[in-house]
Specification:
The complex is a heterodimer.
Chain A (H helix, E strand, L loop, with lengths): L2 H33 L6 H18 L4 H24 L7 H23 L4 E2 L8 E4 L2 E4 H23 L1 H11 L1 H6 L4 H26 L2 E2 L5 H14 L4 H21 L5 H15 L14
Chain B lengths: L1 H28 L6 E8 L6 H20 L7 E8 L4 H14 L4 E4 L3 H14 L3 E3 L14 E3 L4 H14 L5 E7 L3 H16 L3 E8 L7 H10 L3 E3 L4 H14 L4 E4 L18 E4 L8 H14 L5 H20 L4 H9 L3 E3 L2 E5 L5 E2 L2 E7 L2 E8 L3
Helix pairs in contact in B: 2-10, 3-4, 5-6, 7-8, 10-11
The chains are: A mainly alpha, B alpha/beta.
């Protein structure tokens, strides 16, 4: 394998993990865009998606299609429920209160699953045969293929949904100015619910893809990918949907190249280092617009 | 009145003195003149590492039952007194003191995990009591005193055995090693493998560390693949090994996977991915040796489950101790320690003798994973 092939291979590894980060980052950025809340419980939606899939496949032995759709629907409903119960009553309180509540919800979910399933990691069933497909000098795992394919497809669908459909337009309107949107006859509450539902469903897909790639699930598995996806959302410019996708891919590729060419232990340092550099040069993120403070 | 008080205090002093003297008198003779031999056990029977403690304790109890059923040692029955250390150093020290001062045991078996064992070794060394730990692998355990022995092999030993196996049995010349930089066990085994492999004509083409919480190994494995190694050595616990092994398949590495005793259990995580791999273990359940099959049969009858290697080590520890007491012909500390140093018995985990550091020199079982099952491939002798 020559130098170029190795580089491409590392790039593909990066795109694989990056596409998962991007999917998860979308949930952070959509919620932030609409109610200016950093939803720290989003990482745990990933974990819930993984556990629901595990239960569907191993405990209830459902056919694979049903076993993959059910968790997404369950996570979608959980997302709506979390928003209704925990965040809605705080919509007009200081942003810090909602933020602390989000952290509280995150701990609650982690510990409920901890109590139910125990602390030991559980092996996730093998859904896709991991053996690679050869493409010239490159060998690409089936898991990588399917992960990237599903992620990109979902991102395109999301983009169309937001740009072309009425509920999508409502989302954009509410994110720009909730007050004015309400005056125009948009139901703000249901639009916010819809945002949480979409974000959580994407998070659940991210969680399932993550567990297929790293088939060991535990109640705290959502913390690290959640944090990295959050960083990806900030890197791309939080609240901006293409920014989350870009940020996710940059994170994944940076991580993979650092592991491949520098050192595996430095990967996180480099990834977070990039965040610091980008934010100091462009505080609103890569695709963020600089908003001037009005005096 | 005054005189009465004086008399009373004198009497009291007398009583106390007598008591103290009586205590002194008992100290070293232990229960020499009693009709039982007392063995003290220290194991984590509750808490995080209870799985290991209960297995080791069950193995030890089985051996004691067996010995007592066939007449005991030196014509005396064994009395086994056991305390729970909960995997904690303070609890282990308390258990040790109770066994030695109150129960006046003749020898100690324990503790099971390395940290509590290290906490009691200085005390045991001072007392001179024969002590054998069934399963504490940390190098320093036996260094505290010449009366401290162990039944399991130490971490570096496993690395050397696997390196030797790769060179001689698999004819490997290029090896890659991936290890967990945050874990002493993984680090120790990896280093020993590398040193032995290179000193004996092999090349370690890739020696890469990863952090404890790592989940994505594909970038490292892509690098490993370009080096085209014959074997890939993964000394870690089975959960991590399962994750790495699946990604080895994704990246398309065809090297033979090798591991150490942390692999025991990997079949529950990723049976397909580790197919064809080899790892070393303390014993194998399909070893056809008579001792092994008898042990497995009896263990299943008694506890209704398959014995793990901790149970086998607990069982062997009692056998080693019993043989030494029998040979010494007494329970005198020094005589038993001397007999222990000259141990040469064949039991479930192999033929055991001790080196100058009181670590066992014995066969290591190399297990091959075939059709999703652990199969004894060969037994390697370190010499």
């Amino acid at each position: 394998m020559d130098v170029l092939a190795k580089f491409l291979q590392q790039l593909i590894n990066g795109i694989h993990v990056g596409s998962i980060y991007a999917l998860i980052a979308l949930g952070y950025t959509m919620v932030y865009g609409i109610i200016k809340l950093i939803n720290f419980a989003h990482g745990d939606i990933i974990m819930m998606g993984a556990y629901f899939t595990f239960v569907c496949i191993v405990t209830f032995n459902l056919p694979i299609g049903v076993a993959l759709i059910t968790p997404v629907i369950l996570c979608l409903l959980s997302g709506i429920l979390i928003e209704r119960v925990a965040y809605k009553p705080l919509r007009n309180s200081p942003r810090l209160s909602a933020l602390i509540t989000a952290i509280g919800v995150s701990f609650l979910l982690e510990n409920v699953f901890f109590k139910k399933f125990g602390q030991n990691p559980i092996p996730f069933p093998q859904i896709i045969n991991p053996s690679p497909i050869s493409l010239g000098p490159l060998q690409i795992s089936r898991i990588t293929f399917i992960t990237v394919l599903i992620s990109v497809l979902l991102m395109i669908l999301l983009d169309l949904f937001i740009k072309k459909t009425k509920p999508g337009k409502a989302m954009r309107a509410v994110s720009e100015d909730p007050g004015a949107a309400q005056l125009m006859g948009i139901n703000v509450n249901s639009t916010i619910s819809l945002t949480f539902a979409t974000g959580s469903a994407l998070g659940a897909v991210g969680g399932i893809l993550y567990s297929i790639a790293y088939p060991l699930i535990d109640p705290f598995m959502g913390v690290m990918p959640g944090l990295k996806a959050f960083v990806a959302a900030v890197l791309g410019g939080i609240g901006i949907i293409p920014g989350a996708m870009l940020g996710g891919f940059i994170m994944g590729i940076a991580e993979s190249l650092t592991k491949g060419y520098i050192s595996s232990q430095l990967a996180d340092a480099v990834v977070f280092g990039i965040l610091i550099v980008v934010l100091s040069l462009k505080p609103s993120g890569l695709l963020g617009k600089n908003v001037k403070e009005k005096v | 009145m005054r005189r009465l008080r004086k008399l009373m205090s004198l009497t009291l002093t007398g009583v106390l003195l007598a008591g103290a003297l009586a205590g002194c008198g008992q100290k070293d003779s232990g229960s020499a003149d009693s009709d039982v031999i007392k063995i003290g056990g220290i194991a984590p029977l509750t808490g995080n590492v209870a799985v290991y403690g209960v297995a080791a304790s069950n193995g030890a109890k089985l051996a004691i039952e067996e010995i007592n059923a066939s007449g005991g040692i030196l014509g005396k029955k064994i009395e086994y007194i056991e305390y729970d250390d909960k995997g904690d150093t303070t609890e282990a020290v308390n258990a040790y003191k109770k066994l030695v001062n109150n129960n006046k045991v003749n020898a100690i078996i324990g503790a099971v995990t390395s940290k509590p064992t290290l906490a009691i070794t200085p005390l045991a060394a001072k007392e001179g009591i024969p002590m054998i730990t069934p399963t504490a692998t940390a190098l320093d355990v036996t260094a505290a005193g010449t009366n401290i022995f162990r039944t399991c092999f130490i971490d570096p030993y496993q690395g050397e055995i696997m390196a030797k196996f790769a060179l001689e049995n698999l004819n490997a010349s290029k090896a890659a090693v991936l290890y967990n930089t945050a874990d002493d066990y993984s680090l120790g085994v990896a280093e020993a493998f590398k040193n032995y492999f290179e000193a004996n004509g092999g090349t370690v083409v890739s020696y890469e560390g990863y952090g404890a919480d790592e989940k994505d190994y594909k970038a490292i494995l892509t690098n490993v693949k370009t080096q085209n190694p014959d074997v890939l050595f993964l000394p870690d616990y089975y959960n991590t090994v399962g994750l790495i092994a699946q990604q080895v398949k994704e990246v398309g590495i065809n090297a033979t996977l090798l591991g150490a005793d942390g692999w025991d259990g990997v079949l529950t995580v990723a049976p397909e991915a580790v197919e064809g791999g080899y790892f070393c273990n303390h014993y194998s359940t399909d070893d056809t040796a008579e001792e092994v099959q008898n042990f497995i049969k009896k263990y299943k009858e008694t506890y209704n489950e398959d014995p793990v290697s901790f149970a086998a080590l607990g069982y062997d520890t009692v056998k080693i101790l019993a043989a030494a007491i029998e040979k010494a012909g007494t329970t005198d500390y020094d005589a038993v320690v001397k007999a222990l140093a000259e141990t040469n018995i064949t039991s479930v985990t192999g033929t055991i003798t001790y080196d100058e550091n009181r670590n066992p020199v014995k066969d290591v079982a190399i297990i091959k994973i075939e059709n999703g099952q652990n199969r004894l491939y060969t037994k390697v002798n370190p010499q």
